[in-house]
Amino acid sequence: MKTRIKFLFIIFTLLSVTSCTKDWLDVNDNPNSPTVAELSKLLSGSERYMTYALGQGNFLGNNLSSYTHHLVSREVQNYGMTTTANNIYNSWNYFYIYSLTDFDAIIKNAEPDGNLIYAGIAKTLKAYTLSMMVDLWGDIPYTEFNNPDIKAPKADKSSSIYNAAFDLLEAGVADLGNKDAANLLKPGTDDFFYGGDKDKWIRLNNTIKLKLLLQTRKAKSDITDWQKRLSDLITANNFIKSGEDFEFWYTAKTSPDERHPAFVAEYANKSTTHYISPFFYEIMKGLTYNNTKNPFAGITDPRVPYYFYNQLKTGQASQSNHSYREGNFLSIFFADNGSNNAGDQSSSMSKVGIYVCGGKYDDGNGGAVSADTGNGVAPLKFITFHSFKFMMAELALTGEISGDAKNLLKEGIDASIAHVNTVAEEGKVTTIATADRNTFTTAVLGKYDAASEAGKLEIILTQKWIGNFFSPEDAYTDYRRTGYPVLFNPANTTDPGFGVNPTVTALSPARVPISPIASFPRSLYYPATTEIDLNPNMDQKTDVSVKFIFWDK
């Protein structure tokens, strides 16, 4: 059962990170030096800031989705994110100035009074946040962070921060399970994720540990007691359950605006930021125009009308000449260098759908989007039950644990479809029928049976990638550590070297020029204006295409 979010503060503009937290939390004379801690306000604020940092709007979630080839963004065309990109420094600042600082304040003020549920939640979220920052940037300040006597903190090695995260998780689960703690104050509605349910937090804590162990399975020697940690977790078998997804639900409220940021941008404001990657679309549709190696060729995914909404009707011409159109789906290519990639398609381009941002379910009738086509109710996913199942499938397939990888894959697909149905029910639209789910799952498992060991891993990771649409951080990590899913490569289209447009017109040719694709960025630049320029102990990376993070083997 998901926890419904009730915001305790007004959402301020996503275009600025300069606003002080004092007006929101009213607990800090200085947001970096809490003086009178109100645990409930600190918890709600820190959870919300963490959500901002990992999500959409003017944060990493927007442009990182182009790195994972879920979306095509003009701002990050051809891996073009810069050292001064708002998305980088906004997320970096929110992690450091707000979330991590407030987690520390919760721990500092909760422990003396024995309010260990608060302390355990804060330690769990601090460990998760640190691990996500390592996954994105690699070496970052940790041991010298939040020390008022150190103005220029040095970066710690990424492997040492991961080990510290494991220690925090162990301390957090001990706090959450402490039966002798006073716990005079207990979280409730101030905890957006689990409403203060300590048993759910313990299961999430264990699932985060499993995630970090999975991500370091090729770097075991860098993690203290890697094998014992995994064995103990598997033996205890106390992970998140169905319906206990670690996620943040946006609501339909408009004053203050609590709708999903992508719904506000793409539907209410009719922006054109989120072009959906034709490569991603074709994988879900089972097409091979732009990926002749599609592992799901010939299989149509029943999640398609929940993921994508086509504004065009059958037979309707687009506003401008198109780069890519298949049926009523219209978009542009990654690294698109054709003549039709910049025309106005605001009322023609396909939009992210109901599952992604609380937008519209695609019933095939088309129509331009507006604030009334959907309600903005959808979750930002961090760790879902279906991702957990895919994690277990990978561990089983690679021999790290015993278990039936194929059955775990099936459970992951079934859980992903169930999650889509949960959002569909919120939007009061038809759900995916069990028969359709079973037909799809059976077809995927048939591909799995016929695949090599490498092909089996590709299928597991590609299904996980599909399930993580619009939550790109883990997909970004999965690709770097495994090489899956295989990303868009013009050499693998039916017209090698070019993007292929299936719907040809006099001014929309089949052959779409693609710029030479840049080297894949294996970590992010540090933000120049808010870190490198101000901290003499931090050096900028010279080449983000090199392997920089310890688990990137």
TrEMBL record:
Organism superkingdom: Bacteria
Entry annotated with the keyword Signal: yes
Keyword Ubl conjugation: no
Pfam families tied to this protein: SusD-like_2
Keyword line: Signal
Signal peptide: 1-22
Protein name as annotated: SusD/RagB family nutrient-binding outer membrane lipoprotein
